[in-house]
Amino acid sequence: METEVLELRKAIEESQRLFCSSVGCIEKTAMRDTLGLHWCAEHQFRGELLNAGAARGWPALTFYRYALASWVHSWFIMALTGSEECVLLAQEAIAEWDLQKQRDTPSDNLWDGRNDVSA
Ligand SMILES: [Zn+2]
After folding, report:
1. How many angstroms is it from 22 CA to the middle of ligand 1?
2. Is 73 exposed, middle or buried (0-12, 13-18, 19+ CB in 10 A)?
3. Which domain holds residue 88?
């Protein structure tokens, strides 16, 4: 009896894994994000937001009238419940954050004259 319950529970968990995590969506999963949530092709951009946040250590971002705190739960809530516009704007803010980071990181390839011994 106990085994049957466990098997049933396992089967339910398995079947839930096949479906999108977006609220109200019953589409089959197309991708699994870094937190283990599944997303259909239409809602994949939500999982991509979480992957982008994880890859960058969940930075704090502010954009338009939105904000993400430097905390995984903040990103998680936005990915799950944020409007499509909000999530897409967050992805733009991440691209901007990347550019800013590049500008703030001096390149090793640039010769700045400090090692010039010919003078
Ligand atoms: Zn979906």
Report:
1. 5
2. exposed
3. 9-104
Give residue 37 CA to ligand 1 midpoint distance, Å.
11
Contact between 117 and 95 under an 8 Å Cβ cutoff? The reply is: no
Does residue 2 fall inside a structural domain?
no
Q: Which of 17, 79, 75 is nearest to 44 (CA)?
A: 79
Using the mean position of ligand 1's atoms as its centre, give its distance from the Cα of residue 112 in Å.
51
For residue 21, what is the DSSP state? -
Return the pLDDT at 7. 86
Using the mean position of ligand 1's atoms as its centre, give its distance from the Cα of residue 29 in Å.
Answer: 7
The number of domains in the chain is: 1
One digit per residue, the tens of pLDDT, for the chain of length 119 reads 688 888 888 777 776 667 899 988 989 999 999 998 999 999 999 999 999 999 999 999 999 999 999 999 999 999 999 999 999 999 999 999 999 999 988 766 555 555 555 55
| 4, part of any domain | no
- The verdict on residue 24 lying in a domain is yes
pTM of the model: 0.75
Q: Is residue 21 part of a domain?
A: yes
Residue 41 CA, ligand 1 centroid: distance in Å: 7
